[in-house]
Amino acid sequence: MRGRSVGSPMMGTQVSEAGRLPRLSGSRNANADWMSALCPRLWDVPLHHLSIPGSHDTMTYCLNKKSPISHKESRLLQVLAKALPCITQPIVLRWSVTQELSVTEQLDAGVRYLDLRIAHMLQGSEKNLHFVHMLYTSALVEDTLTEISEWLETHPQEVVILACRNFEGMTEDLHEYLVTCVQNIFGDMLCPRGEVPTLRQLWARGQQVILSYDDESTMNRHRELWPAIPYWWGDQVKPEKLVHYLERMESCGRPGGLFVAGINLTENLEYILAHPSQSLKKLTLPNLPYLSTWVREQSPGPGRQCTNIIAGDFVGADTFVNDAIRLNEKLLGC
């Protein structure tokens, strides 16, 4: 079991004289240690009152043309995949990929919420678990969790929030197998559920992982697992309608704990079939400046209309991660 006692951020972390957040550059790994570089006044703010950048459908960067279509997809798509695989597969792939950075690159870029959609393929081996978003990834869940753990070992004061969800094809035995993997891989890094901690509390206990588990019965059997984190999903193709949805959700009041506002655009099968030459990337990238403007207007904190985790697609493509991190300056009142 891994464990360490960490009392304060790493020596050498630079905080500006004005007490603001450190300047963020455009390099891909500039935010690898942004949590430990926060103004000390923010070390005592609970995580659900901080602004935390996240990635939607984190693992889709490893999909490829050989990735099988999920058996949970519509019958129409299944028929098309069997009848016209050379046409159907590339189209589905273009609309399934939401990220281009690997999980390590996302962490280096500053992402601290990872959206892990887990599945067991019908044709897969007994214990091998994959990720899924319309297609199954070749990446195995156990390997990816190990990669995250190794990154955390080299960044001992960064904290990640892992949302394990979807659970396609999972039996009770497979849930228990997955939880055992989580326990073996992260060990004492795991923060047991309870009140949402602050960074200072996590550092003092050597904990770096909050893992939410979207299967209530399994979660209730293991103190290391947290309840499912609410995700505001607009299910919209047009960014204006997505922002309208998010603002409507804000007007209703934020959840009491950790929660996610998703700035990811979403297509349905009819839209995909009507735009076969397009892709989710082509849909998303031109709209990122509009969505980033909405992000910059948000405020973290305990207020009724405050945001917490903000998750997006293609997180390395624009200023989204920097924008979300910089929102924490608003908590300083400077």
UniProtKB/TrEMBL annotation:
Which Gene3D superfamilies does this entry report, sorted A to Z? Phosphatidylinositol (PI) phosphodiesterase (3.20.20.190)
Q: Which InterPro entries does the annotation name?
A: PI-PLC_domain, PLC-like_Pdiesterase_TIM-brl, PLCXD1/2/3, PLipase_C_PInositol-sp_X_dom
MF terms from GO for this chain are: phosphoric diester hydrolase activity
According to the UniProt record, where is the region Disordered? 1-24
Query: Which residues belong to any copy of the Phosphatidylinositol-specific phospholipase C X domain?
Result: 44-213
GO biological process: one example: lipid metabolic process
User: What Pfam families does this protein map onto?
Assistant: PI-PLC_X
Protein name (record): PI-PLC X domain-containing protein 1 isoform X1
